[in-house]
Amino acid sequence: MTTFNWGFVGAGMIAKKALYPAISRSNVGEIHAVASRDADRAMTISPKGLIYTDYDQLFADPAVDGVYISLPNAFHLPVAIRAMKAGKHVLCEKPLGMNAAEVKEAIAVSEAMGVLFVEASWNRWHPRTQRIQEIVQSGELGAIKRIRAAFTYDGLDGGNIRLDPTIGGGILYDLGPYSTVAPLWLMDFPEVSNLSVQSVKHSGGVDETTRVNYTLGNTVCETVASCNIPETSWLIVDGEKGSAKMLGDNVFNSRHAGSLLEVEVGGVKRVEEFGPVDPYQIMADNFARKAMGGSDWVMPLTESVRFAELFDAAFAQIKM
User: Fold this and answer.
1) What CATH code is carried by the domain that includes residue 65?
2) CB 46 within 8 A of CB 52
3) pLDDT digits (tens, 9 = 90+) for 123-168
4) In 3D, which of 298, 255, 279, 294 has the Cα closest to residue 4?
5) SUPFAM superfamilies this protein is in (predicted)?
6) Do residues 101 and 229 share a domain?
7) In whole angstroms, what is the distance from residue 220 CA to residue 235 CA?
C-alpha cells in the first residue's frame, strides 16, 4: 500500500496534540518532515528527525506529498498558496483565509495546480456530526423551524495569539467555524437573510463573544461563540415533527470519547450512541486517500466559501 508522506508547517499546540498523534496511529500516512521557525519544537513531532526552518525548503522536498498547515490564521492563505504552487496537496487549519476573496484566490490556485485543498474543520468528519446532518436532511424532523448552536470557553491570558488582531485573532475565526456555521451545513446551504450580530470586544480589539443570528428560509438560527463564557456547547434542532440534540461538553470537539445524539419524533425519544473516535485521524486519512485518487469524503471548498461569506457579513456589522 502506498504511504502518503506529510509535511507539517508549524509545530504549535494543534499540530502536537491533534494531528501528530492522529497520523502517528495511521496506516495511510506518516510524517516525513516538519517546517518551523522553532527547530527544537519541530523535532518533537518529526518521527524521522527531518526538520526545516524554511517553509519553502519543505515545499521543495520531492518526498512530501502534502502539507498540513497550522500557523496563526493570517498566515494560512499565503503559505497555502506557496505550498500549492510547489505542487503540494494542502490540508489547512480553519479559516482558510481572512475573507471570502482570499479563500477564492486560494481555490483558484488549487484548481490551476490540480492539487487537493481542504479546510481542516475536523468535527465535520465525526460520525455523530454526519448523523445529525443526515437526520435533518432526511425530513424525519419535518420542516426545520429553529437551530441553536453554541461553543464557548473562558480563561485566555492576554498574550494568547487568539487575541492578537494582527494575525487574525478573534472568536469568530476561532470557534465560529464550529457553532456559527453549523446551521448552514445542517440545512445544505440555503441563502442567509435577516443577519443580526451582537459582539463584545476584547481590550485588544478582537471579538471575544459574538452572537450571530440569521434566517435560512423559514428556519431561525441562533448561534454564539465566546472565549469569555464558561465552557459549554450545544447543537439543538427543532422541527415540526420533532427535535435532535447534541448536548454536553463535547458537541463540537468530541474526540477519544463516546458521544450521544438525542432524537425525539412524535413524542418518542431515542438516544443514538457513538463510540470513541478520533475525527482528526478520520480527516487526515480521508484527505490522504482522496489525494492519492480515492473517493473518500472531504469537506468541499464550496462550503468553505459560504462560511467565509457569512463571516464577512458578520464582521461588516461588528465593525460598523
Assistant:
1) 3.40.50.720
2) no
3) 999 999 999 999 999 999 999 999 999 999 998 777 788 888 889 9
4) 294
5) Glyceraldehyde-3-phosphate dehydrogenase-like, C-terminal domain (SSF55347), NAD(P)-binding Rossmann-fold domains (SSF51735)
6) no
7) 13
